[in-house]
Amino acid sequence: MRAAWYEKQGPAKDVLTVGEMPDPHPAAGEVRIRIAASGINPGDIKKREDAFSYGMPYPRIIPHSDGAGHVDEVGDGVPSDWLTHPVWCFGAQSYRPFGTAAEFTVVPVKQVARLPQPVSMEQGACLGIPGITAHRAVHVAGDVRGRTVLVQGAAGSVGLCAVQLARQAGAQVIGTVRSPSDKSTATKAGAHEVVLTDAKLAASVKALAPNGVDHVVEVAFGVNIEVDVDLLAAGGSIAAYATNAEKPVIPFWPLVFKNVRLFFLGSDDFPKKAKMSAATDLNAALEAGWSGFEIAERIPLEEIARAHEFVEHPVRAGRVVVIL
Questions:
Q1: Which residue in 13, 92, 2 sits closest to 308, CA to CA?
Q2: pLDDT in the model for residue 315
Q3: Using N-to-C axis directions, what is the helix angle for 128-139 and 157-168, rounded to 10°?
Q4: pLDDT tens-digit profile of 117-155?
Q5: pTM of the model
Q6: What is the pLDDT of residue 316?
């Protein structure tokens, strides 16, 4: 099969190789997917760059955890009716060496969801990490129906999924964005109200939620924690999946006085049931008419280094997918 891989970490153009590898075959409980589109997430970049100093967990790594295609082979114990179905997958390169940047990938069937029609393969390839992270961020503190959810960074990949999933779950959704041009993205995703991340943010949110917000989905924990605490109602919660600072300072006593619950979310280690629930709800959103992501670039596998560089230094909004 054609595949892209790296055997050392570093800049994309220096370490990514495209070539031929033996075709994989599924073990018991697994399926093989003929990949049509492979999604790139910031985590894929960080792994390749060794941003967290974890080193190479395997001698050779095929990158990317998310992808979409058709099931063309099933392992023992997997019903044959999976064959030929369009699907999207997640976690292909979580605690496994070979992800979706290849003609074929093999994953446990529990990490595969049928792709609703007529959703494109490119959309399916973008769902995994951002969609599952967003679902956990929205629901980790409990039912949000009838509650007010603030989504920081509502125009980002996780943010727009969180907006859609919170709206789908019956929450009143307020999104924050960095520029006026991002407002339409958050609104299209389902935000009831959208405010700018500027000096007036707290006042703007308080005008919309005078009794405080109940839950915050947080993309930049370090820089936003003080305003989040200010905006939260007593007994509120924060679900943080990213931060601008590795060792942020937190306002301990304000958190204590409001009895705030903090959740820190790493998608690789979410409970399996939470991931499967997320896949179900994401598909339901798509089937209900959610348009998903804007696709900024479709780049062939042979140019995967350029695709990674585009994610590192985007020149326009939207997701990048590798096409096979």
A1: 13
A2: 87
A3: 50
A4: 999 999 999 999 999 999 999 999 999 999 999 999 999
A5: 0.96
A6: 87
Contacts of 182 (CB under 8 A, 6+ apart): 154, 155, 317
**Low-confidence residues of the chain: pLDDT under 70:** none
Q: Which two tokens stand for residue 14?
A: 């220096």
Structural domains in the chain, CATH included, are: 2-126+293-323 (3.90.180.10), 131-268 (3.90.180.10)
Provide the pLDDT for residue 92: 97
Q: Which H, E and C letters describe the chain, residue by residue?
A: CEEEEECCCCCHHHHCEEEECCCCCCCCCEEEEEEEEEECCHHHHHHHHCCCCCCCCCCCEECCCEEEEEEEEECCCCCHHHCCCEEEECCCCCCCCECCCECEEEEEHHHEEECCCCCCHHHHHCCHHHHHHHHHHHHCCCCCCCCEEEECCCCCHHHHHHHHHHHHCCCEEEEEECCHHHHHHHHHHCCCEEEECCCCHHHHHHHHCCCCEEEEEECCHHHHHHHHHHHEEEEEEEEECCCCCCCCCCCHHHHHHCCCEEEECCHHHCCHHHHHHHHHHHHHHHHCCCCCCCEEEEEEHHHHHHHHHHHHCCCCCCEEEEEC
pLDDT for res 213:
98
Q: What is the pLDDT of residues 5-20, one digit of tens each?
A: 999 999 999 999 999 9
